[in-house]
Sequence to fold (318 residues):
Amino acid sequence: MSKQYYHAETYDTRSSVGYLVKRAHGLALDMLEPELARHGLTFTQYAVLMSVRDGIALNPKDLCIQLRHDSGALTRLLDQLESRGLVERHRSVEDRRAIEVHLTAAGEEALRTVIPLVVNRINSVLKDFSHAEVDELLRLLNKLILGWQGELAAGGQQS
Amino acid sequence: MSKQYYHAETYDTRSSVGYLVKRAHGLALDMLEPELARHGLTFTQYAVLMSVRDGIALNPKDLCIQLRHDSGALTRLLDQLESRGLVERHRSVEDRRAIEVHLTAAGEEALRTVIPLVVNRINSVLKDFSHAEVDELLRLLNKLILGWQGELAAGGQQS
DNA sequence: CGATAATAGCTGCCGAAGCAGTTATTGCTG
DNA sequence: CAGCAATAACTGCTTCGGCAGCTATTATCG
Fold:
């Protein structure tokens, strides 16, 4: 961008990408958590299961990074999911420090129950969007995420 | 949308609006929190101050709703901000149950220090965006938020 | 106008997240 | 290959968010 989009003097929260993303995120939680709770899952537990299922993160380390979750907290969360028989932990053979998290049949079954409800909700939220608009939203969000990752990789020092 | 965008059988986390919004939100926090911490603010404290400054929420009730924060937790957070002299609480005269939250001069000063840093970061993240792309992202995010609010207002029952 | 319901904010309690430190394993460097 | 740094997962402690209950005030409805 040749010129900066925002300026400190005129910055207003309502038109800030950050604010809008936070607000959208909060509303998504408000909508999905009650639904998931009815099936005995917190949103974080659901997020862990889905991340494993779709290969976004296959071990605790990546789950922490991708879900922005504390390492200690994740250990205990996996303890729960494991004791409920939804996931299994296996020590990796290539790197014996690491652990591989797998969905059990029960874990996959739980997701098969819950995913349609989630999908319905999201579709319902998108009911006034054209197909092209959703595509564009996804593209821009991905671009935003890449930009953020780039910034963070740059070390977090002042630009 | 005449046809549903997502389908349970083919649903993949990576292309889900929900996932992308959550990821963008998490990365934004990763980027902003260290910056704010250097100035003695948590992100939530910053969000409260900004919400009051920009008239998004002027009392604890609206702050809870807009920031999706627990009422009890917010009371204690406001206690802190008040004891540090960044905000003031005044009982409303129209409704004596309610409280009006105001920024003090010190609160405004703190924001004047911090806002430019936040703005720089956001601009830096948006550096590969055209002006039109940011406009479109803001429009779509606002539309998404409206859709979510509509769903929630509809009562949260199954669609 | 009186009684009951609803609302705003606060408090206590509990569970989950964040932080620091530990152990086991691997990578790096001389 | 020896020694030290880095990494992955886990544990204990602290802090913060979520929940239920309480008080004061306002709205509702007979």
Q: What stands out?
A: Residues 42, 44, 69-73, 76-77, 95-98 of chain A lie near DNA strand C (CB under 10 Å from a C1').
